[in-house]
Write a structure and sequence with these properties.
Helix content: 40-55%
CATH class of the largest domain: Alpha Beta
Number of strands: 14
Number of helices: 10
CATH topology of the largest domain: D-Maltodextrin-Binding Protein, domain 2
Number of domains: 3
Shape: elongated
Largest sheet: 6 strands, mixed
Oligomer: single chain
Distance between the termini: 50 Å
Radius of gyration: 23 Å
CATH architecture of the largest domain: 3-Layer(aba) Sandwich
Strand order of the largest sheet: 4-3-5-13-6-14
Length: 297
């Protein structure tokens, strides 16, 4: 029985169809279908019922899915046991933030690919909250304050941010001087998040209000430069704006707390070697990034 056929079946089961599984695997739909047919032929049962709306597991497919996933995981663990220090192989699917990922994290993935030429890396960039298990990712890189979840997280760096506004906005509306004054201003936000301020060793939390929202930090920086309000953004996004004078730091006596950069993975006893190697490389590379500080700082 071909291990790739088993893995492909698990992807079809988890993704809910051949097309979605093909996108996850980075192969054509015809290859996915061929692997499914071959596996079903060997087992002598139909695992997936094809419909005009996609694919659904048969009763046999439902019963077989967990067994197939365990076999795939066991074989991967066995390979790592006998090849603990060699080239990484297989596929690594990583979800990254769109705001921070292409500029600061993509070079790390490129370095990983150079060091391990047999490893297939599939990266996805989005600022939305990705469901790692449902969407088939091995891990995600997340920046900021982590939400409560059952995911396993490892901190690999620290990112710094500022509160900012444009000179035009400040001239027209003034600049807030203490955290409580934020509610008197237009805040540029991703959603309905709370903002945090450091008052000495104490964290002050404020729920700002604003009419302009975007799910991407670069878009919020552009809105702030246009004079639409005040923003809380990472230095890696706003440094060029500050250097040009388009944005001005405000409330410097009450800076936001530093945030973490994390590798997040689904729960399990041990991370795969691919995720461990990526984590170590991120710690190595991000420590040299001028916008970040080491994790023990």
């Amino acid at each position: 029985m071909n291990i790739e056929d088993l893995r492909t079946f698990v992807e079809v089961a988890d993704a809910g169809g051949v097309s979605a599984a093909a996108r996850r695997l980075g192969v054509s739909k015809s290859i996915v279908s061929r692997r499914l047919f071959r596996l079903e032929g060997e087992l002598g049962v139909q695992l997936v019922a094809r419909t005009t709306r996609g694919a659904a597991l048969t009763e046999a497919g439902i019963a077989f899915r967990d067994h197939a996933a365990r076999v795939g995981a066991e074989i991967e663990a066995a390979r790592e046991t006998i090849q603990p220090t060699g080239d990484l192989t297989g596929r690594l699917r990583v979800a990254m933030p769109l705001t921070f990922g292409p500029t600061h994290l993509a070079p790390v993935l490129a370095e990983l690919a150079c060091r391990h030429p047999r490893l297939h890396i599939h990266s996805s960039y989005s600022d939305r909250f990705v469901d790692l298990i449902a969407e088939g990712f091995d891990c995600a890189i997340r920046v900021g304050l982590l939400q409560d979840s059952n995911m396993v997280a490892r901190r690999v760096g620290t990112i710094h941010a500022k509160f900012l506004a444009s000179p035009n906005y400040i001239a027209a509306n003034g600049a807030p001087e203490v955290p409580e004054e934020i509610i008197l201003h237009q805040a540029l936000m991703q959603g309905t998040e709370a903002w945090q301020f450091m008052d000495g060793d104490k964290v002050v939390t404020i729920n700002p209000q604003g009419r302009y929202k975007a799910d991407n930090g670069i878009a919020l920086a552009a809105a702030a430069a246009a004079g639409l309000g005040v923003a809380w953004l990472p230095d890696c996004v706003t440094d060029p704006y500050v250097a040009s004078g388009a944005l001005v730091p405000i409330m410097t006596r009450y800076p936001p707390p530093s945030a973490g950069v994390y590798v997040v993975r689904p729960p399990g006893q041990h991370p795969s070697r691919k995720v461990r190697v990526l984590t170590d490389l991120l710690i190595e590379c991000l420590a040299e990034d001028p916008h970040l500080s080491k994790i023990d700082s």
